[in-house]
TrEMBL record, chain A:
Keywords: Mitochondrion, Ribonucleoprotein, Ribosomal protein, Transit peptide. The gene is Dap3. One of its GO terms (biological process) is apoptotic process. One of its GO terms (molecular function) is structural constituent of ribosome. It is found in: Mitochondrion. It comes from Vidua macroura. The keyword Ribosomal protein applies. Belongs to the mitochondrion-specific ribosomal protein mS29 family. This is Small ribosomal subunit protein mS29.
Length: 382, 243
């Protein structure tokens, strides 16, 4: 085991001459692809290709929703959450650190082929922002709002629109877990009526709106709309920074598989949740940033080879999101592949005796094409 | 002379003195698809990488002869199940083929890989939670568990029906290795298909059964023991066997 560690050590030494000694203790070669720096604010190119640890309590607080399913299973099996630091994430973090919050919010669109790590990049950015104390509006998968909805009600606020109580209440519950203290601090700026009898007065904390939405599931979508509106209006004051993180943003401008009672198709702008989220993703507010991901995997009526913004967003979506900063996410570089392979070996995930040999490693690299998802799926049964 | 049947091989006319044996086997006009009837001159394909990487000097006499033969003889087409991967295992392939239904190898293979992953996850969770002194006893390699479980399920002696004097007797009979392996795999698969809850999936149930069989517990091991007891009980008829 020591030989393997030393080989990796010498291979990676070339690019990491300025590595601080605390990262690579002499007796434990395993740490070459780990880093003890668990604060994303301090991640630099030095840490590229290395895995950093997120404490499990923080995972529960920051990511009640939003982590991919396979990664959650991995956290459960290994008993730790290790995320790789990669170039696209470092790029976004650098832009966020240097951005001027008096200007309108900049939109970042993370795109790439299937399984290259777009959602994990978004989670890295979300972790950084929550560590910095921003208010994080994380929509784990916008595609869930435009398909497989069992209950669609006509909205009481606007006759043309449709409500989705289940999805809205699930999202409100997770939003409450991740942003407890902000809900107490932000106050409503006008009076809201929920039906004929219930209302929320001006100046009440936002927490009451959220609780109203959770208690009366029928008005959950309207509660979501109110929350988004309040946050957007108050973000320019500067008391908090806002991050809007949407995964699968191409769902907002595509088609839906839902239909009304008379079997006519529903277009996305007729859904309250989508309508309000579209307003958040426009750049007419300041004091924060909008980081989004394109996703073909859950998308509707899009070919599986489509991954560029033009193809997935369509004309309408592209015009709505334009101008944005595109961030491509490639497959693993050789160094990142070594790092991931070494991590699996160290955690005893690769159990097959041939997987420890050079031949096995070459075969894994070839079969997966250095694609993170394929590598994960191949290494599963091995 | 008798008239020839249409489609029969042509009868030999006169025997010409010929050195060496006839290599032109008779081929019918309609080629069968399910079985392959190659000319006997065709050689088997070689998939292992190591045999091509040996330098010329290290080969033995037979291997040198074989190489020279390969230069002149044609080679059979490689079947899709032949793999040069270092991770391929013949037992796992056989088990996957037995699990397959109506030729859906993709589904069978994905079920197999999900089973192996499920076994690995369960064992790793146990491993990480166990105290230091017990960690060595926990086996995490799904392949070792699979092979050991199959070995534990193999019966040593089987029963066969022999009819003598109008009555059929269950006679204890030794089994070949192939038959033992087949019976073990068949029992495992039937057990997992039939005795499970409607909502549990195959990988989940299979991983459970494999782990139980690895520890010599579970319904398949019980079935093996019942067979052994029946054979022991019918010991008196053992002389009915004539092979």
């Amino acid at each position: 085991q020591l030989d393997r560690g030393c080989a990796l050590h010498t291979a990676a030494r070339g690019g990491l001459s300025s590595v601080s000694s605390q990262d690579v203790p002499a007796q434990r070669p395993r740490a070459i692809f780990h880093t003890s720096e668990s604060d994303p604010a301090k991640h630099t190119e030095q840490h590229e290709g290395r895995l950093y640890n997120i404490p499990l309590e923080e995972v529960k607080a920051v990511f009640p929703h939003g982590l991919p399913h396979r990664f959650q299973q991995q956290i459960q099996t290994f008993n730790e959450a290790r995320v790789m630091v990669r170039k696209p994430a470092l790029e976004i973090l650098a832009y966020l650190k240097g951005s001027n919050f008096a200007h309108p919010a900049v939109r970042y669109v993370i795109y790439g082929e299937r399984g290259t790590g777009k959602t994990m990049t978004l989670c890295h950015v979300v972790h950084y922002c929550s560590r910095q104390g921003w208010l994080v509006l994380h929509v784990p998968d916008a595609h869930l709002w435009v398909k497989n909805c069992k209950e669609l009600f006509q909205s009481s606020y606007n006759k043309d629109r449709l409500d989705q109580p289940l999805q809205a209440s699930v999202w409100l519950k997770n939003f409450k877990t991740s942003n407890e203290r902000f809900l107490q601090e932000i106050k409503t700026q006008k009076k809201y009526m929920w039906g004929k009898r219930e209302s929320t007065e001006e100046g009440r904390p936002l927490r009451e709106v959220v609780e109203q939405g959770l208690a009366r599931v029928r008005s959950a979508s309207d509660a979501v709309g109110v929350v988004l509106r309040e946050i957007k209006q108050q973000s320019h004051r500067g008391s908090f920074r806002l991050l809007v993180a949407v995964d699968g943003v191409n769902a907002l401008w595509g088609r839906t598989t839902l239909s009304k009672e008379d079997k006519s198709p529903v277009s996305p702008e007729e859904l309250t949740l989508v309508h309000n989220l579209r307003k958040m993703v426009t750049n007419d507010w300041n004091g924060g940033a909008i980081v989004t991901t394109l996703s073909q995997t859950g998308s509707l009526f899009k070919p599986s080879s489509a991954y560029t913004p033009q193809e997935l967003l369509g004309k309408e979506g592209f015009d709505a999101l334009d101008p944005f900063v595109p961030i491509p996410v490639p497959n693993y570089s050789p160094r990142e592949f070594e790092s991931c392979y070494g991590y699996y070996l160290e955690r005893k995930w690769l159990q097959h005796e041939k997987a420890h040999t050079e031949d096995g490693k070459a075969e894994l690299q070839f079969l997966s094409g250095s694609n993170p998802r394929q590598l994960d799926r191949l290494a599963g049964p091995l | 002379m008798l008239p020839e049947r249409p489609g029969a091989p042509p009868r030999p006319r006169e025997s010409r003195a010929r050195g060496g044996r006839r290599l032109r086997a008779w081929l019918p006009r309609i080629m069968p698809v399910r079985w392959s009837r190659y000319n006997p001159s065709y050689l088997e394909p070689e998939a292992k990488k190591e045999s091509y990487q040996k330098p010329l000097e290290e080969l033995t006499e037979e291997e040198r002869e074989h190489m020279e033969l390969k230069a002149v003889r044609p080679i059979k087409a490689a079947p899709p199940s032949l793999s040069s991967s270092v991770f391929s295992d013949p037992m796992i392939s056989k088990f996957t083929n037995m699990m397959m239904k109506s030729g859906n190898k993709v589904l069978a293979r994905s079920l197999m890989s999900q089973t192996l992953e499920a076994i690995k996850r369960k064992q790793l969770e146990k491993y990480h939670k166990a105290p230091e002194n017990e960690k060595e006893t926990i086996e995490c390699n799904p392949y070792i568990i699979f092979h050991q479980a199959l070995k534990n399920c193999q019966p040593i002696i089987g029963l066969s029906n022999i009819t003598k004097g109008g009555k059929t007797y269950q006679v204890p009979v030794p089994l070949t290795d192939n038959r033992k392996r087949f019976l073990a795999m068949k029992w495992l698969i039937t057990e997992c298909r039939e005795n499970k809850h409607r909502r549990t999936l195959m990988p989940e149930k299979l991983s459970q059964e494999l782990l139980l069989a690895f520890n010599n517990e579970g319904p398949v091991i019980k079935k093996k023991h019942i067979l052994h007891k029946m054979a022991e009980a019918n010991r008196a008829y053992a002389h009915f066997r004539w092979w």
